[in-house]
Amino acid sequence: MRPLEGIRVLDLTAVIFGPLASQVLADYGAEVIKIEPPEGDSMRQAGPSTEGGMGAIFMGVNRSKKSVVLDLKQPAGRASLLELVDGADVLMHSIRPQKLAAIGLDPEVLCRRNPRLVFASLLGFGDGGPYSGMPAYDDIIQGRSGSAALMERQTGTPQYFPSIVADKTSGLSAASAILAALVARGRTGCGCRVELPMFETMVGFNLVEHMYGGHFEPALSGPGYPRVLNPWRRPYQTTDGYICALPYTNAHWKAFFAEAGRPELADDARFATLTLRTANIEALYETAGRLIAMRSTATWLEALARIDIPASRIYRLEELRHDEHLVATGYFEVIDDPTMGRLVFPGVAARFDGERPPVGMPPRLGEHTREVLEGAEAAKRRRRD
Fold first, then answer.
1. pTM of the prediction?
2. Burial 59-70 (b: 16+ CB within 10 A, else e)
């Protein structure tokens, strides 16, 4: 089952944030029509490839879509877009608000034209504030939302997360918001306008745990969850490698200290309860690190499995393609393309009725322009008749 079968999405976004959101919708069965300018999405040139315009980063967020080239700076391009809007369920864009009307994307006009349309604006900053309309990329949002400062608190140096986490988190949130709007339309018959800003999304993301004592007025503590800011919160070194291990409950820590030959530490005044452990988290993790450093990875993995404490060795990115669980569940998908050769894609994580939706090939630039525009013209004639 593909639950969004029959839903048509016009995607005017580019780079990562918006394309990831629309890829989720495509994975779930929507017909996603990627509207591109004549030069294409800039990400088409990002990363290695065996074919021009099909860079690896582009392919990672544009699978299972169609590509239509429209020059929205020209009247003919805008007219074609309006015809597509008539038959669309969702229009999503990442264009700054002050530029929308100039290219014929005034939301009021489009929503009057198609009252069932979900009009989704994927922005850097929410409307109505002093940052509205400012350009935004992942690095900027990581800096403004506190992400780089969180790294500074843990490592001593301001750093970005080694992932485009603001783009990806916001993309997943945007897909969720669009799905919510479609559910509401199913009840009311009316579309709506959706706004999903990166800045506010990442502030909320970071403050899930780091709001901490700031939930209360007056604040009971400064912001920041000590457990995850602790510089000792990292893979533990063993005599021959590293492991990830997380004793968490009272029973876990009692069993861990007993296994490590230090049972008395379970009754240490710093470690006896979750509240005490949180208050003394650096000392706790440093102590655990020193104990784990005395044995091998294999020895610890066996012991921690035996006493039911979650643990794993470190896996490198290169190993994931052959991970035994991912192989057994058929997670990675292979597409044999006549031009590009054999291509490997991460699969869709979600399953519906036990089945994972299939992954489709990312589109070449303008590959579906004629098909989609001729279909829109035929639909227009049917409505007229």
1. 0.95
2. bbbbbbbbbbbb
